[in-house]
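User: Continuing from earlier, I have the next pair ready.

Assistant: Great, send them over.

User: Here they are, in order.

Assistant: Folding the first of the pair now:
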Amino acid sequence: MRRSTAFEFLFKSKNEGQWTFIDGWDVAEKQTGFWANCLLPAQHKAVPEQKNCAPFKAAAPLLRINMLMEIPDGHANQLLGAFTKEARDRIMPHMTAVDLKLGTTVCEAGGLLTHAYFPQGCVLSLLTVLENGSEIECANIGREGAFGLFSAMYSRVSFGRCTVQLEGPMIRCDIRPLQVEFQNSAHMQKLFVSYAETLLAQVMQTVACNSLHSVKERLCRWLLMMHDRADGADLTYTHEFLARVMGVNRTSITLAAQALQNKGLISYRRGMMQVVDRFGLEEETCECYSVVKARFEACLNPPSTAV
């Protein structure tokens, strides 16, 4: 367990009777003589809709809960966690907690971007959309990264469609303070460039996988990636949905899923999939899963030679 890196904590000194903000990383060293109040949403209100982007439900106002906020390590956004403490302090006022349903479009292809999105428990799917309306997934983003980071800072236009592939919490941040941090911090420049290169590596590996590997291998890779982000929970996906994001026909998905179920690797029923034998699933998948996973694990430690 560790404290969330996406929020600060409000502490009150018993001796001084005053409220002060203390960064979550310092909680362990500062528990003595303090009691904490975690900032959580008391109710939700709508945020004005942006052009070609989904309407969001923002957490507001804030409710103080008399407890120390702790969450499992896997549920904090790792890219945000790699920011310097000073950078997190400065962008904190520009962050909003959002929670979107499965299938919600975060931004359409060609849509205007003014924010970056940092998944904490959700997964976002990046889809390439063709003129005839067909689409295929080229990458997905979980708590290891962010959507819209470079598009929002430069072109302001999303090349592909971004949708919610796994429900869960996410942080939405105005791009302007992120621009300032990027321009003024060598650490942030290395971090952002490292993440952009890693996301590109996933896109490149996905292109090769889609072209050269079987539907069964690709399905195994996709299920393993989602299983990592869902922390072992059941996956609520229909064959039709999987066929759409993988760019194949439904029959191919059904045959691949049946083969995996017959081997005792997964079970599925009425849109619910469960990984039964993860080790066996890793044996059936192609090398693309381990290649992309290893690259993301190295992403948050950019080399000293990085620009």
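And the other member of the pair:
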Amino acid sequence: MMDNIGTQHFPSLSAALSSLFGEGTQIETTNRISGGDINEAYGLTLTDGSCIFMKSNTKENRALFTAEAAGLCAIARTKAIGTPKILGIGTEEARGGYSFLLLELPGILTKRIGKELSAFLTMWMKFLWNRNIRLCCMGICGQEMSLLEMTARHG
């Protein structure tokens, strides 16, 4: 299913991987990436050799990823800075349930997934926070709100 900004939503991580990379594609290795305070972050290497980035949180916080995807799309439209391609958002019921955001890793980042990616994401989140960019959340909460307001409302 696609939302109004063109982001695919998946009912599970396995459904996302099969849809995006082909039937039977699975996670070969998972590398925890440090630096995130709100979400858990992982570099995933898939059985087809692809490397992707996954953020996860509780399933109740899926709206945060929808808002982040909207923010990334807005930044990408400016063509001022490069942004990672959004692969999809979903909710997984396994392991107690969690929500996830999948992003494509540019080629250079697949070789240096650790500190560089963490530093970029930290810088990007500080930019969003400091600039108090207004995210259009019409599909989530029916009104426009800042990242600060969204964090306060959705945890």
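Worth noting for the second one:
The beta strands are 9-10, 27-33, 40-46, 51-57, 86-92, 98-104, 134-136, 144-146. Residues 62-78 form the longest helix (17 residues).
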